[in-house]
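Curious: can you check?
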Amino acid sequence: MSPIWTHWATSSQLNSFRVPLHDAGTGLSGLPLGRVVRGTQFVFDPFDAYRAGIVTSPNVAVIGSIGAGKSTVVKMMVARGLERNRSAVILDPKGEYGMLAQARSGVVVRLGTSSWWNPFVESEGDNLNFLT
């Protein structure tokens, strides 16, 4: 078995990381996250991609400059996951996911001296808890 390929890069080197000009088609179905440069729809779900063998892990890193749409993409991915009965726990120090939680009948827990949360205890609706 060949070793797993790894590569270390600095944040300045990540600047060359670009979305491909043409989406070769992942074969994944679902609501599109957007369009690639040539206008075709881009559909991506990390768990579907993992099951299909397209990626080796469903983990996602969203990297971009200020105002590039990182939060929008993450909110879209979380909303689509919730529609498919997936779980989400959001640590949200800026409070920007509260509207998404309310739209999905979720619970926003504001951590402080008068509240607590145990992530190891499953409760009804636990896939809709948002922490701020």
Q: What stands out?
A: Residues 19-23 have pLDDT under 50 and may be disordered. The helical segments are 46-51, 70-83, 98-103. The chain has two domains: 9-86, 87-132. Residues 9-86 form one domain.
